[in-house]
Amino acid sequence: MKKKPQKQHPRLTHPLVRDGKGQLRRASWDEALERAAAGFRQASQTYGPDAFAMLSCARATNEMNYVAQKFTRVVMGTNNVDSCNRTCHAPSVAGLSAVFGSGGGTSSYEEVDHTDLIVMWGSNARFAHPIFFQHVLKGIRNGARMYAVDPRRTSTAEWAESWLGLNVGTDIPLAHAVGREIIHAGLVNRAFVERATTGFEEYAQLVEPWTLTAAAKVTGVPAAAIRELAHAYATAERAQLCWTLGITEHHNGTDNVRALINLSLLTGHVGRYGAGVQPLRGQNNVQGGGDMGAIPNKLPGFQDILDPVARVKFEQSWDTVIQPRYGKTLTEMFEAMETRELRAVYCIGENPAQSEADSEQAIRRLAALDHLVVQDIFLTKTAEMADVVLPATAAWAETDGTTTNSERRVQRVRAALVPPGEAREDIDIICAMAERLGHDWKFTDSQTVWNELRSLSPDHFGMTYDRLEEHQGLQWPCPDMEELPSSYLHGRLWETDPVRRGTPAAFGLVQHDPPVDLTDEEYPLRLTTGRRLDSYNTGVQSGSFASPMRRGEYIELCPEDAEAYGVSVGEEVRISSRRGSVTAPVWVDPALRPGLAFMTMHFPDEVDTNQLTIEANCPIAGTAEFKASAIRIEKLVPAWT
């Protein structure tokens, strides 16, 4: 079978504006910035400040994200700012914040090297987080046992002592059964539970129906395997519980996260070196974007917008008035495009036309905007729809600043290359836009931005550029200029003094809620989506580079399903859900079980997988259920018949 060539996205080297014929044409920076600013001004003056929204970038620096959210709140007067954090790990932030008051992973990567047990739940880290997985391998070499919980027997699961292949969307029953077994086996860390948590009795009552037998029927995991995991996790001296999008990208993603955190509370596997819970963030600065306030409910440094003391501090520093209400999440922004409540969007470094669930609906909503400005390094599908396109610099090679990874480590990045053509720094572009809208911001360099952030965020105050360079990065919270921060969070929970211990961690009382898109006779297969090692997200960046591992998009089926449908490797088939259809060749993967299919989002220009996915959103975090769509496949009739 001849493989479809992957679309090459050209690097943006000069501004573009849409002409009277609807085509994007080259423009000067002055014309492009004036057109962009005029559209934002008109939307705000005509429909109010909440008619504007900012989509900030999880791959750009902390400094850029700080300036982007400041532009949104100060220049445009709204809290409508969000990023692709909403698409992936918003449930992790919501769940961790609800339990611990902080939305970051509790451990450092180094602790995985020295732990005794590692649980990879809904995470194919070997493909999706290969740097982190090196720490997993170090841990295994140092004697740690590893368990993998995943519907597929992934490349990560091949390294596990045991693989628990659960049915998609049954994470809560499995977690509850593990918890119940820990309770019934007398393995609860009673001292920790009584001292540092609340809600244990209610939790014990909640999980009581989930016996090993009951859970096995719902999850498809043998009772013996569930029991083994429960005993291994509870009896380990130190254990790390890690998850990725297999947990979060569900309509009840936050509940999934709470169910896993419950297990760490039961056993005391949090707040100690080598023992913690770790959401693995999928992009270089998705953690930092939220930390910098590029989310609708938090100011920089995780300070709640509804807190009047926090608001006053920022209002005095910025000489503005901040709305005392949350802005729209990315999910709510797209809904507001449909109702025309949202009229203008400034999209920096994101490609929602191809990354959102139900992509045809997303494109229709973006097209309804009065004004769309895209600032990026490539002409993405979203940029092709814009009224103004602004060429920016690549954050990892052409920009100075910092980023924050999954272990909360802030690290310096430095410009190594001169940007091509007329491409300009993101912060420079945003400030030029602000100037045209009446705000004269003078940031001489990224360090000036960072120092302003430090003055407003206690958790970042101790992180000067000099200290970050000296220590090769520092983890937040780092409020002190002298002491170094701890590698792990929530050690306070082990304090005997109630005052020092602070607010207890609450068990989450969450119920099983099956996937929204049910399989039936018409759509009998369960499609789950994910990543492959050779490609990155919607392929805009990785698609421009050859990889010997890359084979394009396929629908992966188990051997039994391929035989049942009479299809073979390389054969083109039509894949349909209740939202749309695509065609793709077949790949047979023995790591899949009957009834389960797998695809990625890496090649949307050739196979737009997100036409199939469903916009069923977590009511708490707003993340869509990318992991559980109902589909059918059909053989294609050859054109010559």
Task: Identify the notable features of this structure and list them briefly.
641 residues; alpha/beta; seven-stranded mixed beta sheet; six-stranded mixed beta sheet; 24 helices; 27 strands
In terms of per-residue confidence, which ranges show pLDDT below 50 for 5 or more consecutive residues? none
Helicity level: 25-40%
* Approximate strand percentage: 15-25%
Give the spatial strand order of the biggest sheet.
2-1-15-14-13-3-4
Which sheet architecture does the biggest sheet show?
7 strands, mixed
Distance between the termini: 18 Å
Outline: globular
Question: How many beta-strand segments?
Answer: 27
> What is the typical, i.e. mean, pLDDT?
93
**Helix count from the secondary structure assignment:** 24
Alpha-carbon Rg, integer? 24 Å
Q: Structural class of the secondary elements?
A: alpha/beta
Structure description:
The chain has 641 residues and is of the alpha/beta class. 34% of the residues lie in helices and 17% in strands. It contains 24 helices and 27 strands. A hairpin with a 5-residue loop joins strand 1 (16-18) and strand 2 (24-26). The longest helix has 19 residues, at 29-47. The protein is globular. The model has no long low-confidence stretch (mean pLDDT 93).
